[in-house]
Amino acid sequence: MNTFIATSIFDIFKIGPGPSSSHTIGPMKAALAFRRSLERLSADILAQVDSLDVALYGSLSATGLGHGTHKAVLGGLLGWTPEGCDADRLLALFAKEGAEYEIVIGGCKISFRAENIRFAGAGERLHYQNTLLFTARGGDRDIQTGEYYSIGGGFILEKGERARCPPELPYPYSNMNDLRRLVEERHCSLDDIILANEEKLADRSRSEIQAGLDRILSAMLESVKNGLAVDGVLPGPIGLKRKARALHRHSRAVSDSHDRFLAALNAYTLAASEENAAGRKVVTAPTSGSAGVLPGIAALLRRHFKLPRKELRKGLVAAAAIAFVARHNASIAGAEVGCQGEVGVASAMAAAFMTHVHGGSIRQMENSAEIALEHHLGLTCDPVDGYVQIPCIERNALGAVSAYNAYILAMVGDPLRQKVSFDQVVEAMRITGKEMSKKYKETAEGGLAVCTVHC
Q1: How far is the C-alpha of 167 from the C-alpha of 421, rounded, in Å?
Q2: Domain with CATH 3.30.1330.90 in the chain
Q3: pLDDT of residue 339 exceeding 70
Q4: Is pLDDT above 50 for 198?
Q5: Model pTM?
Q6: How is 357-411 classified by DSSP, letter by letter?
Q7: SS3 for 259?
Q8: Assigned CATH class of 19-158
């Protein structure tokens, strides 16, 4: 791609309810956008609206029920935002059969029930498979329609939406090769480049950006803390029991320090991932389905290495840079490239995070990310019963362990002996995802989703 990367750090790291950024955060944002389009109608036209209908297509249709997409849609229509919504209230939506809700827009009251949301199938003729079609009707007439696409990581597009012209950036780059060249030739740090661009993209001061990074970091660590404090069974028909709390407790009794260290890392990652599976607040990193990897690593560095928040903020900057390149040149959406774009990219982000905070060079950081992503290539997204539980939760833990090993390989090895670049492995991910059967892209139509028997 010839265009420059113009993604904000806070577009990659978004706080919102689990279990899937493409199935909950994206649809909630789309529903909220449609609600705002209705708010712009004149009062006399809005008064004619007597029903709202929503059609979900692609993996939103195939696995949306298990992901709670219908709840996210209603939340958005009620005016809730992903970061501001109450997770308990969101989870309670449609809990009672026949429940009816009143959507109030500009004094107009519209009744809404579960029947107003239709899981409409593949929708192969549509522009993008994860499509939401909204229709506001008055009698037998369509008064307002909206077509939105949930494109992964909580990002959405509206039909006909023109790409925004980004501001002129002080450090334009399109891939990792460009970014490395900027660091090496201009003798500046990675942080300087990413944060200088962020000031332009987000129109925020450096101190405001740092405060935002602190808020993201706090939310990540909170998801680990909350997950370690809770036990029980996760929502849905699988009956999957949480493991993080017990694992964390048992890890303290492990005699071998190395085993105890890895057990703790697994516990931290499982904790955040289980919070996501339960529909609680997490941080997309880069998606909700992979929201355990980076928080697990961050908790490890905070709790075991006693790294200050200032250093962890630097790690978030490096992780964001990896996500920028992966999203710009391939995808971070399971519906497009499978789980290699979610846990694979998350593992690469976590490897870069550790390398950067431990003083690694830009080449070492790139190598750690490349190693982590390379060995997730071809990873499918095949959630059992459409829930972000099996294999997703344990896969986050393995992604974190892979990230740690990738960091070791990059820091201890000779960076000039690395043959494969990060850009090359991102291109391999793009091609692999393009050729991957749609059965393995969040549809629950292949792999473990059809080979696993559960109660």
Answers
A1: 29
A2: 19-158
A3: yes
A4: yes
A5: 0.92
A6: HTT--HHHHHHHHHHHHHTTTT--B--GGG-S-TTHHHHHHHHHHHHHHHHHHHH
A7: helix
A8: alpha beta
